[in-house]
Amino acid sequence: MPKPEKFSTYLKTRAKRIKDPRNGKRTRLFFMASAARLLEKKTMFELSVAEIRKPMNTSHGTFYIYFKDKYDLVNQLLTEYIEFELASMPQMGSNADLFDFSLAINSWYAECFRLNTGIMRCFFQLNNARPDMAELWAQRSRKIVSRIMEFYTQKFELSHKEIDVFRHTLHIQGSALDQILSGTYGATAHSVLSSKEDLAETLDLYGVMMHRAMFCKNPSTKKLSKSKILIQTKFKKR
Fold first, then answer.
1. Is a pLDDT exceeding 90 seen at residue 58?
2. CA of 196: how far to CAs of 2, 201, 214, in Å?
3. Rg (CA), the chain
4. I need a labelling partner for 210 at 20 to 30 A (CA). Which of 23, 25, 42, 83 fits?
5. Is 57 left (phi over 0), alpha (psi -120 to 50) or beta?
6. What is the residue extent of each domain of the chain?
């Protein structure tokens, strides 16, 4: 299972492995790698075909052999990103601790987000602007949730109704985590955290809330940092 990495680096490495400079797959990958790298600093709407093709020193027409326009390129880019992202998702056996699994998933997602903030920013922008991108975002969410559900259905015997509720809970929790990470890494304008240093503590806290929501119990305090106070506090009436 590969570790999370920058999608632009991954695409460029794949392109370089193809030695024949006339190979169309190689050229297409270089275009996509260039776009992914540019999205690290630019919004989707600031992106231009001229900038994308500049590193390859190709003609304007060459770009249109592979893509209808920049939106077609980004559509293909985001579609491939989904599978790239899933390939690095943690896989744990059915005997794994539930809270360890939750922490592993949250940490993985946060790292993918950090490394590919430009891709995520692009997703958010187009999700609000284009129905086809909204559907692609929904497909991505469903795939991530389905992969998580594979772990739970290996571990528990769940009815169809229980599976539906688990899925719905995971989608809600994922949306909340997206909001936290998008603000932290600048994919959107506002941050709910005072600094990136807060993120580890936030993921710890988020893991506790997720565990409580899914399983109606607290995780072991041995696995927690500051958020253990949520479990240890004894509330006394005034």
1. no
2. 25, 10, 27
3. 20
4. 83
5. left
6. 7-73, 92-228
Q: Give percent of the chain with pLDDT exceeding 90.
A: 58
Q: Distances from the Cα of 219 to the Cαs of 2, 113, 143, 222, 228, in angstroms?
A: 28, 25, 26, 9, 9
